[in-house]
Amino acid sequence: MFKLLGNALKVSPVLLGLSLLVASGAYAAQATATQSTSEQTKTAATTPDIDTVSNESPVESSTSVSQAVPSGASTPLNLAANTLPEASQTPVEQLSVSQPTGSEISPIANPADTTLAQSTPATGVATPSSTSEVLEQINQYSHEGINSSQGQVTNVSQLSDVSPGDWAYEALRSLVERYGCIAGYPDGTFRGNRATTRYEFAAGLNACLQQVERLIAASVEGFVTREDLETLQRLVQEFEVELATLGTRVDDLEGRVAFLEDHQFSTTTKLNAEVVFLLSDAFGDEVAVPSGFAPSTDDLDVNTTFADRVRLNFDTSFTGRDRLRTRLQARNIQPLTERTGTVMTEFYTQGGDNDVILDELSYRGTLTDAFTFWLGTTGLDLDDVALAVIGTPSAPSDFGSLQPIYKLASGAGAGLTFGGDGPFRIDAAYIANEAADPSEGSGLFAGSYAALGQITFQATDFLQISGTYVHGYDVSPGGGDGSRYANAPFGGNPFSTNADGDPNVFDPDLPDFLSSRTSVNAYQIAANFQLGAINIGGWVGYSNAIDELNRGAGRVDVWNYAATLAFNDFGGEGNQLGFIFGMPPRNRTNNLTGRRDLDTSYHIEAYYRYQLNDNIAIIPGAFVLLNPEHNDANEDIYVGTLQTVFTF
């Protein structure tokens, strides 16, 4: 075949240009041809979160590419035949071009003139061994073409990467100015050094054949010579299989689209899901007790557990710029708190007994590129609205995966975001924990709530800095991640005696701290700096809490911080190796006697997210708590996890 092409280059500018199509033009021709097909498809709903299938058949049958020969024309020439009429020294003015058995692809010069025909390859025509491979390849051609192909080039000077000194310059100029079957890309380039396949070359050949046919049918005098036609005939025969297979590909694609239309779940709703399998265990000597208490005499006895969390998200779009999320969840990952004596050993996935519940019902609408709003009746979190600047989102522990300030509220409410992807982003949210409860001391405004305001600086791709303020009422100043004194600083003290009447001994069977109406003003500064594949970040958080139940008699200061380090694509694309070192929320000062953390706990964690493929990730991890409950009388506690995360 290459010898044939080499000889053909000596014959005519037409063939030289067709050879150039191997580099780029054929690819653009195929892409534009596919574009003419896809333009007939209407999308039921489009959104960044939702992919929907077409609702109309993308292909219409077209008439034969052979044109009627005008009256008085000389003997017509069939390029698919094996014989040619007697030699003539005068140019051929009329020509009927018959394609081999197969389908016709619209030429790139004018994709609106014809459409893709549905055809079956002739007997003996080879077809791809795998329908899915065929569809994947034709989809690849069509997508690139739709995004990158431009209209017919009318002058070779429009192609910025083609200069008069190029060896193929004259051939390109002839194809552009004489035959009109060359197209470039939106950036004004031809990309002549690109490799191509036989199918792509066949598409480009078909485009020029149809353009030649139209010019002949229009009786363009002096258009083509006999030698040109002989060369074109040999090319048609050489690529007969590929031309026919193109039609089969289109037929297969149309059948697949029709099947999806008949079996689609919804034209507006997309189902996506996450399944987590968690294998975990904890190790240590004794159960942790609050700061100031003598060490516990109870051994830390934790058995290895294997549990799960399943989330099904039904994401619906009505305008293409909005999302209604309905999430169903079931999980049975039990917290280790009762066995270890501290909430510092909790996982971010824990809770439940595998009952299916409505975990989230929220609506997000985008009015402009810079303005987005949220509404939710259940399961709306502060970090759904506000951008959490953290470099270790895959950490297994609750403390390492998300900053405590975003855990002050979860429920019903609303949120706004201004700025989008601009240099400054502003987030605001109001979420009530008991919005559906009409009783006294509850509801949307009278019960537990948190109001957030955050500004994020994101002027560069490698640096993000955020400042966050949250005012909350009847919430935990420690966000549920700290010590007992940090999470409930004004509660009663059930640790004066244990169940046997022994004084000053912690007993995990006794009730937890008494609740108290607490108002909280929480502040946080977080940053993440990306240097190549390395993320360096961290945060510092501070909460000032007031005992409103006793008219401000109690006041506390709660601090927390962490430093994070992550190596992205470590060992492969999509993987992440992460480390966290920090101090869980600690009650440093309290004017109530006996309810202050005297020592300091440290959280040290490491994990590795291995992306097995696009849908499965395996995350082994471990963390250790030094001086848990901010009590150096407690022995260290070690927690090991192995997660498998399925997403689809």
UniProtKB/TrEMBL annotation:
Can you say what this protein is called? Iron uptake porin
GO MF annotation terms = porin activity
Per the database entry, which stretches of residues form a coiled coil? 229-256
Entry keyword set = Coiled coil, Signal
At the top level, the lineage of the source is Bacteria
InterPro entries, alphabetized? Carb-sel_porin_OprB, Cell_Envelope_Struct_Comp, Por_som-like, SLH_dom
Family matches, as NCBIfam families: por_somb
Q: Its family?
A: Belongs to the OprB family.
Q: Name one GO biological process term.
A: carbohydrate transport
Composition bias of kind Polar residues appears in 52-78, 87-104
Its lineage reads: Bacteria, Bacillati, Cyanobacteriota, Cyanophyceae, Oscillatoriophycideae
Q: Residues of the signal sequence?
A: 1-28
Q: Where is this region: Disordered?
A: 32-78, 87-106
Q: Which residues form the SLH domain?
A: 155-219
GO CC list: membrane
Output compositional bias ranges, type Low complexity.
32-47
Q: Which Pfam families match?
A: OprB, SLH
Organism of origin is Symplocastrum torsivum CPER-KK1
